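Page 37, continued from 36.
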């Protein structure tokens, strides 16, 4: 009996260890400006067709010509590891050195800039689905990891964004309704399909859609109300530091110390303000400079000072600066501190020159409340993505057979 109990315990540990959901991470603070994109540089996660390429860029502020290596892993729709062996999803090898890097030129902050393009002569992808790239140093220590998606054109998706039909949500929520048209026969769509919804390419708010409501010929129709709804939120705030020495409409003051310092105008809560449209890039950032011709190695790093007006210090809530600049992570680096003498929350971030979107969010008991400070409106422009995964009988992984995207700028009525 003791042996059986031990076997059961070990088996339970094995199943738990290999069913954990994998998350993106950044383990060190000297790796900055991680930019990961496919054909469109405004993509916040690469979503590429099988055999298309994507690019990973990052900076090492240690500037010591460190060696970095990449590894690739394959996952199911829910980011649990798939049952494929590496030679079933990769052609060639991973764990290869990134040999494309350059030193910064003419900058106060020294750094080395690394670039990796995949697929390449060494590494190609055999199947579609969810992938994770992990970057290690020469001591086999994980530096950071990022998700990317490889899809096949085996399904067509028509996506529309509608206001909520509930009166209490009419002005605050956006409802996704869509139709999936597979290009092959799916015997049991209730079980064989998994559909994941994303708002502005952010996995931390992904939604697993229910099974299709009904079939119309070969079309699978999803006309849910609350199950496929998102808060509209508000447009992101922004600033532009591509000219190191100039103030802009959102930058109050520029100072040069060891590095350039950019002091943004103090922001106020927009929670109770009416909606005002101004274009944003949905939380993303773009590296740009007017001080050189190559923004990858001639853009400098600056200390950006943020402030949020608040007449009193919050007791239970914490406030963070939120954006793609650090992959929407909630860390000590982007946590704000209350300054009672000025009645503001303050934060300082070291950021590479460019155009940045950001917002302020509250965190209560570890749970982020994204729109309690910035406001929540159904008119807000958001990008929505529908990811369709298929796993037939006997298959070992979730194939990504199609994607659909739509912007909510013009809600359907």
């Amino acid at each position: 009996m003791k042996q059986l109990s031990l076997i059961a315990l070990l088996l339970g540990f094995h199943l738990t260890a290999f069913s954990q959901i994998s998350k993106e991470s950044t383990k060190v603070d000297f790796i900055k400006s991680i930019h990961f994109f496919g054909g469109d540089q405004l993509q916040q996660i690469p979503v590429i067709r099988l055999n298309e390429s994507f690019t990973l860029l990052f900076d090492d502020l240690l500037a010591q010509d460190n060696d970095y290596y990449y590894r690739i892993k394959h996952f199911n729709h829910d980011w649990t590891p798939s049952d494929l062996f590496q030679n079933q999803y990769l052609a060639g090898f991973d764990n290869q050195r990134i040999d494309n890097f350059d030193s910064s030129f003419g900058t106060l902050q020294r750094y080395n800039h690394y670039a990796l393009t995949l697929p390449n002569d060494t590494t190609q992808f055999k199947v579609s689905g969810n992938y994770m790239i992990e970057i290690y140093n020469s001591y086999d220590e994980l530096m950071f990891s990022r998700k990317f998606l490889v899809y096949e054109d085996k399904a067509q998706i028509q996506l529309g964004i509608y206001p909520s039909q509930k009166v209490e949500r009419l002005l605050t929520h956006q409802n996704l309704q869509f139709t999936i048209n597979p290009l092959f026969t799916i015997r049991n769509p209730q079980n064989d399909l998994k559909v994941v919804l994303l708002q502005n390419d952010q996995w931390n708010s992904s939604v697993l859609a229910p099974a299709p409501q009904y079939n119309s010929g070969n079309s699978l129709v999803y006309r849910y109300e609350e199950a496929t709804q998102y808060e509209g939120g508000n447009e992101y705030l922004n600033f532009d530091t591509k000219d190191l020495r100039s103030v802009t409409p959102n930058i109050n003051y520029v100072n040069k110390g060891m590095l350039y310092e950019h002091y943004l105008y103090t922001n106020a809560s927009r929670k109770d303000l009416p909606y005002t449209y101004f274009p944003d890039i949905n939380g993303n950032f773009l590296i740009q400079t007017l001080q050189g011709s190559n923004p990858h190695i001639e853009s400098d790093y600056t200390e950006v000072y943020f402030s949020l007006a608040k007449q009193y210090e919050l007791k239970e809530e914490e406030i963070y600066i939120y954006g793609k600049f650090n992959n929407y992570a909630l860390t000590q680096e982007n946590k704000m501190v209350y300054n009672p003498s000025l009645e503001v929350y303050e934060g300082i971030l070291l950021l590479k020159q460019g155009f940045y979107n950001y917002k302020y969010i509250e965190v209560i008991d570890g749970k982020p409340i994204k729109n309690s400070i910035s406001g929540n409106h159904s008119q807000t422009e958001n990008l929505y993505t529908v990811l369709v995964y298929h796993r037939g009988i006997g298959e070992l992984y979730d194939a990504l057979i199609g994607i659909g995207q739509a912007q909510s700028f013009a809600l359907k009525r």
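The CA atoms of residues 322 and 359 lie 5 Å apart. Flag for discussion at group meeting. Confidence is low (pLDDT under 50) at residues 1-19.
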